[in-house]
Amino acid sequence: MDEKIGVGIVLFNPDLERLQTNVGALKQQNQHILLFDNGSKNLEQVKDLYADDQTIIIKGFSQNKGIAAALNAIMNFFAKQQFDWVLTFDQDSLPPTTLLGDFTPFLTKSEVAVISPAVWDLSETADDYEHTDRDFDYIEQAITSGSLTRVSDWQQVGGYDERMFIDLVDFDFCRRLILSGRKIIRVNRAVLRQEIGRSKQVLIFSRRIPVDNHSAFRKYYQARNSIYYYKKFGHQSDRKFYWDEAKLYIKTILFEHGKWIKLVSITKGIYAGIKLAAPKWRQDEENKN
């Protein structure tokens, strides 16, 4: 029996030309595409673009509720229609036209909850992004954009954590899957081009260091959520929040524009993370949701 696959793209004030390019690449591979809007100012223009396209469904929130809420809405939409897998995207990814074909041989791996591409940030060279010569590798973290997620596993661990809003939402989800005994794989021949903020690479002692140049808004959630993440998983965490915070400060001071407002946002995020209640995650608790 063939696996039913849906495609969901989260929108927030998308660049219409890039959106059309991405949707066009995905339509060559799948005819079940949901555009889920998170309070965009140009939503009516998006609707006009696809008014006559019966393969495109547009839904959304009237305001921005965060990436986690949008992803859960996409997964819920396809779960209700008995789909087996959902391929999720954000509007800044550049999907290859062979992506689903590259993923298909791995759909029968019953232990796998997420199938991920090798992600090539637009600021990187061909030697920088993570991949090997093997067909696939087991990994512990995958971004949601370009990843294929098994619907039953999304349900099993309680979906994406909407308290996080944005940043580390994907890694939090992956951590719960890993701790539940599920597997995540990276298919190395499937390469997803991704634009991460206004990212760039800087050289320090001949080593390339990624600098994302995210907004002050994003810096707040990066700082807050790294503390929340650690509080949630405790000794099972794969991240060290004090190192995460230190990197945010150091990279901002050394390499980014708008330093002052970003440093203030990081500091506010740290205080918010300390105050934010984070229940210790246990598999049996999440399964009740």
Q: Would you write up a description of this structure?
A:
It is a single chain. The protein is α/β, with parallel strands linked by helices. It has helices at residues 16-27, 43-49, 67-80, 99-103, 151-156, 169-179, 216-233, 241-255, 259-275, 283-286; strands spanning 5-11, 33-38, 56-61, 85-90, 93-94, 112-121, 136-139, 147-150, 183-194, 200-204, 207-211. Strands 1, 2, 3, 4, 5, 6, 7, 8 and 9 form a nine-stranded mixed sheet that branches. Strands 10-11 form a two-stranded antiparallel sheet. Strand 10 (200-204) and strand 11 form a beta hairpin. The protein is globular and about 45 Å long. The chain starts with a strand and ends with a helix.
Summed up:
The chain has 289 residues and is of the alpha/beta class. 38% of the residues lie in helices and 23% in strands.
Helix content: 25-40%
DSSP strand tally = 11
What is the approximate shape?
globular
- Strand percentage lies at 15-25%
The ordered H/E elements are EHEHEHEEHEEEHHEEEHHHH
> What's the helix count?
10
Low-confidence blocks of residues: 284-289
Look at the structure and give the mean pLDDT.
Answer: 89
Task: Specify the structural class.
Answer: alpha/beta
* Rg calculated over all Cα atoms: 19 Å
Distance between the termini: 29 Å
Oligomer kind = single chain
Largest sheet: 9 strands, mixed
Which tags fit this structure?
single chain; 289 residues; alpha/beta; 9-stranded mixed sheet; two-stranded antiparallel sheet; 11 strands; 38% helix; disordered C terminus
